[in-house]
Model the fold of this input.
Amino acid sequence: MPPARKRVPAVEGWFTLDEAAPALLGTRCKACGTYHFPKEHFFCRNPSCAGSELDEVPLSNRGRLWSFTDNRYAPPPPYVASEPFQPYAIAAVELAREKLVVLGQVVAGTGTDRLSTGMEMELALEPLYRDDSSEYLVWKWRPTS
Amino acid sequence: MTRTQEVAILGAGMHPWGKWGRNFVEYGVHAARAALADAGVDWSEVDFVAGGDTMRNGYPGYVAGASVAQALGWTGAQVASTYGACATGAQAIDVARARILAGLSRVALVVGADTTPKGFFAPTGGERKQDPDWLRFHLLGATNPVYFGLYARRRMELYGATPHDFALVKVKNSRHGLANPNARYKKLYGVDEVMASPIVSDPLRLLDICATSDGGAALVLAGADFARRRTSRPVSIAAVSTVTPRFPNTVIEMPNFATDSAVAVAPPDTPFRDSIARGAYEQAGLGPEDLDLAEVYDLSSALELDWYENIGLCKPGDAEKLIRDGATSLGGRIPVNPSGGLACFGEAVPAQAIAQVCELTWQLRGQAAGRQVEGARIGLTVNQGLFGHGSSVIVKA
Done:
């Protein structure tokens, strides 16, 4: 039996690897409370805030579907497309506490015919692509029901 | 701010859009020579060249202003090159206009040209994990049509738009572009054909989404005094808006992964897309009721409907009524994209905002044969470049 591939994030530091309850990692300005994803470390993007101290925080791992679409054709590199290509959906999910909308792929096997705006979505981890030694994970959205 | 001084458009020129596979400089030179001939201005009289940079998705490939100036033959003219993604051309126009208004330049050539690859726009090669444009392709496969699909679905949910409405936009633009010698696609489509084309990013179909094209566009701009010596009735630029969003921008913007957070600051009363044309209206002291026509950036057919509302042609949610009633067709209350728009051109990024102004120039002179908006006196262009670049130009007869 070949050795199991290592499970590693496709991008470092953007999400936790807690497989049961993964979370995106953002930052929050200590001065005004504004959240940032991806993380900002050196400045707050609120124009009326001079804050420069930002804490890393996990973002809510549930939210409401703001809009959605899909890829029926393989995106170009640097996307590593499966062969044969399997269409997949992409979701924009609104997080209530952070008051922001964040994108993500939808888990494999859930097409746009199973999505409707306003539905509750939760974060999941799935492989984005593999090579001989590793499986590269990315965050995805999944309907809660 | 209302500006009473205006800069004249003395000449407009384009290289036809297509997939010609030649160097972008050739299209730029062709367009520049056409604009100079149209203006009756000799290249040696141009003292400023503003080039729209030719790039792939956010990152530089070539320097435009100097490349075209070298091809036309060095004259020592001052130069600037700008980049604002799809809004690149508006920035080039704005730089040239500002120098003329400041008295620093007399006659300016504004030029943009592009040679595009086949298929989706994609980032240039290499591994760039700090670059959001590279990462959105790598992690999400979020092509430009993915963002267009998100906006289109949102429109369906908010306002009850249907794929049939989107198809009506494509059909209208395909009719407008039939007689345009610079258009790439001169084919009249029916609703059934559009709706039978394959879905690319649900709900958008292949014929709802603009192609990528080769092309070049140029303008010759001059101050009022110079213009009066060359023409008795110049068309003039009344406004150029190159605004950025206001925080928090709550609509997901290409190529971002997330919107701004609205935790600390409430969203602005005027969302980004609305603020683009508003900036131009405020400069010109005009409003949407003054327009005779508009050229809007129909990256997708659905996005054209958003623009109707963003530029104030109707209230949010009423755009479907405008397209269904034919209000935005030639002969309607307010024709939109009489050139045929991106539906008939495809996108040649650094040239496109300039091409929009070329069309207004010909329309306001009464030279838009086969697609003329009768008696047009005032027109507006609008577009938006990724990373938060607004672009809107108002042209007056």
Notes: Strands of chain A lie at 6-9, 25-29, 35-36, 54-58, 62-71, 88-95, 100-106, 120-130, 134-143. The mean pLDDT of chain A is 96.
